[in-house]
Structure formats: C-alpha cells, structure tokens
Design a protein that fits this description.
Length: about 350
C-alpha cells in the first residue's frame, strides 16, 4: 500500500477504492495517481496494507482473536499465494451491484479481442515513455543506417554498378510501356532493392553475422524494418489513437526518411549510364573474385527451376525481343529444356 506525503505533516493513504471513488454509468474506475492529484516530485512511501472499512462487506464476521501464523497456515492449506494470484483476475466486476470495474482501459472498448491483445495494448500505453527514451538512444544509429543505405555519397564504398544498371532498366521499361506515373517507378525500385534485400538483412542480421537474435532484439529490429518499409512507400500513412506504438514511434521521422529515398533515386538517375560492356565486365570481375564462395551448380539449378516453371512465357518474350532474336535465345532455351527433360 502506498502512502503519499502531502506537505510536512499531512499523510494520504492511496487505495484502489475509497469514499472518493467515482461510479459513472455502471463503471467504477480504480483510483490512480491522477485521481489523487499527485504531482511530480512528490514523496510516496510503501506501508503495510491496512484494512479499510470501505472495502469490508457489512455481512463479514471476524473471530475474536487470531494470530498472524493462523493466517499463514490458512493460506497455505488453500494454496500458495502465488498460485492464487495467478488464477484470480486482477479486476473483477461486482456481481451483486452490477458495477463493472476498470483501471486504464475498459474491457468493452476492445470488443472480442483476446485477453493477450488487451494486455498488450495496456502494456504499450504504460511503457510508451520508456519506448520513447529507447528510441532517443537509438535514433543516431537508425539515422546513420538509413543515410548510408539511401545515399550515393555517404557510404563506405562506391555505388555498385548493378544498382544503376537495374534502375535504368526499370526506367526504360516504364518509358517503353508508356508508364509515366512517378509513384509506379518509385514502387518498382523500392520492391527491387530496399524492400527485397535490405529489409531482410535488417530484420535478420543472423543471415550476415554469426550472432544469436533474441526475441527482444527481434522485436526491436521489427520496428526499424517497419519504419524502413514505410519510408519507401508512396502512400500517406494516417495514424490515430488506436495505431500500434511501433508506428507511432517514428511517425514524425518517416516524412524525413521518405525525402532521403526520393533523393536517392533521383541521384542515381543523374549518374552516367552503364553500358552493357561495362556491366558484363563488372559481373565477370565479381564472379572471379567470389568464384570459391558460391556453388555454381546449385545457383544454376535454382535458375532452371524458375525457367522451367515459366518456360512458355519466357520463350514468347524472347521471340518478341529484337536482341534475343539476333542471338536465337528462344531456340537455345527450348533446346536446353528438351535436354534437361531427356536427362531427368
């Protein structure tokens, strides 16, 4: 039980229920610090629980005398206090009067949600201050990560040629098919690189590093990954009081991050174009540098599995492409599929 020192002499015992407890529309709210108007920097002390006449039923009867050891033995015979507390609900309605009790959140406001979800919302509200403090501690690291990923200058190495080549290819395809909506091009580029590769690395660092990812670390990284995905989106995120706390944490930062993404795509589009010869030379060099790090046959098998699944669509596309026609790629692919089918 808490006791609040009010001035030098006055003392107020803080209780869940007393004569000041308010009942509105069959709802009785348990007293809070706000109810007692306890301000910041007040002194609160813990004192042994006292029996209040307000909480004692009028029909209750007590023995004339008993010792504290009798109470302990009586509790032990009925079950351990821990097990009793775990089975008994924290807030129960008054069945006789029909009054429902609530503390921070009313039960009916959640409809048919499970108890776990209801408790999760209460915990998120209670620990929101701690979440904000943790976010402030990690803010610089998150900013540095996003700035490195969405920058052509502030990075440890030069921008890979493959990114420029791929983004130019997407722009060429958009021009070829008459797609001039900038949001569509933005979404294509986001789906190809940030949302397909970087989100997976952010969410699962154990894929890159030999580390153990605990459940707490996984939850924190999920918030960063969600913020990363929201930053790549072109749609406007409307948040309200019922929005999850992980989205509210970075709500003010996401517009800033979105500007970084847009600047990143614009900077890449202004870089000099990469010719097919330069791209082939780059890929050959990368293959040479990492020749002993990957299983080439396994990679070819994965590519063939995809090609065989969509063979008809790929052959039709190759027959319509001018460069593929000159190299007879459709005919070569048909021969490859026939050879693989014979061997299998």
């Amino acid at each position: 039980m808490d006791k609040w020192r009010q001035g030098r002499t006055a003392r107020v015992v803080l209780q869940d229920e007393d004569i000041t407890t308010k009942i509105e529309n069959d709802w009785k709210r348990l007293n809070t610090l706000m109810h007692y108007q306890v301000s910041d920097r007040c002194v609160v002390a813990l004192v042994p629980k006292q029996t209040s006449s307000y909480n004692i039923p009028t029909s209750a009867s007590f023995p004339r005398s008993f010792s504290r050891y009798d109470t302990v033995l009586r509790s032990a015979s009925a079950g351990s206090p821990e097990s009793m507390r775990s089975r008994a609900p924290m807030i129960t309605p008054d069945l006789e009067s029909g009054v429902k009790v609530w503390h921070l959140v009313k039960n009916h406001e959640h409809g048919d949600q499970k108890e776990a979800e209801r408790g999760s919302k209460m915990v998120s509200e209670i620990y929101l201050t701690r979440l904000l403090a943790t976010k402030g501690t990690l803010q610089k690291f998150v900013d540095d990560l996003f700035e490195t990923l969405f920058s052509t200058v502030h990075r440890g190495s030069a921008l890979p040629l493959a990114i420029k080549y791929m983004f130019d290819f997407l722009d060429e395809q958009a021009d070829k098919h008459g797609i001039h909506d900038p949001d569509v091009r933005h979404t294509w580029k986001s789906n190809c690189l940030p949302l397909r590769f970087w989100v997976n690395v952010i969410k699962n660092p154990q894929f890159v590093f030999d580390i153990h990812k605990s459940s707490i670390t996984d939850a924190c990284l999920s918030v960063v990954a969600q913020t990363f995905m929201d930053s790549c989106s072109t749609s406007e995120h409307r948040l309200g009081k019922d929005s999850p706390s992980n989205k509210l944490l970075y709500a003010k930062d996401i517009p800033h991050y979105k500007s970084w993404v847009e600047r990143y795509y614009a900077d890449i589009s202004r870089l000099p174009a990469i010719s097919d010869q330069d791209m082939n030379a780059y890929l050959a060099e990368q293959a040479r540098l990492h020749s002993h790090e990957f299983n080439m046959m396994s990679a070819l098998h994965e590519i063939y599995a995809y090609v065989s699944k969509y063979s008809q669509e790929i052959i039709e596309a190759l027959e319509q492409d001018e460069l593929a026609q000159k190299q007879r790629l459709a005919y070569k692919l048909e021969q490859l599929i026939a050879a693989m089918a014979t061997e299998s």
